[in-house]
Amino acid sequence: MPTTDAARTAQLALLVDSVVDYAIFLLDPAGHVATWNAGAERIKRYRADEIIGRHFSVFYTEDDRARRYPQYELEVATREGRFEDEGWRVRADGTRFWANVIITALRGPDGSLEGFGKVTRDLSARREAEETLRRAQEQLARSNEELDRFAVVAAHDLTEPIATVAGFARLLSERHGASLPPEGREFLGHMLASADRMQRLVGTLLMYARSGRSPHEATAVDVSQAARHVIADLATQIRDRGAQVIVNLDPGVCVCANRSEVELVLQNLISNAVKFADDETPVVAVSAERDPDADGGWIVSITDNGPGIDPADQRRIFEAFERAPVDAARRGTGLGLAICERVVTRRGGRIGVESAPGEGSRFWFALPEPDGSPSSVSEIAR
User: Which residues form the Histidine kinase domain (predicted)?
Assistant: First the structure.
């Protein structure tokens, strides 16, 4: 038997009245409460006989009422058909809760305004969770900043005594090394090697700490030019390894960053590629392509023909002091890739690696391109 209009109306009324997670009620054209459901009573803590007939502005804070915000909501809903907002609302007992509010204008067949439908949801728990997360993130950021400051101070304080030890060890080797017994020369060699490693570690630690600071103003950086500077700086390492470094970068490959940052990332990635390339015929390639996952931007790749990296180690190696299993002669400080990730991500970019054992490695980083304004592009020539 077909459902009558009256039956459907009764079913709808039953549905609305049974909902307890949402306050669903009607307002007359002037904003007075006309109906009240179980959800409204639970959330706002008014009984139907306490609230029906009263103006809905009683749900708003004194500040909102003073600036006539309830009236503004009805005006927008009348004009646009709908109004949505999140903000503080007030319960019957005076306590506040964070609410999502939707007001819909209700019009008759002739288009005349007959009132408003209002749906309110209590989002206090979600807001509190968001606030807790925000406070935790702020605390973590402060802790990271303090740790970076400590690392900078510690690295500065360690630089001088390490340099003193290394300097005297070299003087001892130069002036008296020949007169030392073999065992003494061996011990002195260990001292010099350890001092050199410590100096490199302290320098890298200082670089890592500084990479966490607020970035300098971004400009247009020519990646090809930056790569040439880096390769020139690495000329000794490249020559000692007998490596071939192939650069396939057009002058038009520009990213929005800071020149020193781009060169720092390229230096770490190219140096690593030269170090880990094939022992017999080391080859490293530097190239770039448009970033398909970004609205403007470039992916710069540094590829080597080395032994590759096990998939289990590929994410871990970007963490501070983490290294893939390598022989002692090629072992670094474990901070180079962490520095690269810090520099790239704070510019809104991405960094990663594609590799497989025996197939070489491709390290890449993606950065947005500059906006093309004359002031930005002019920085390329500086």
Answer: 153-371
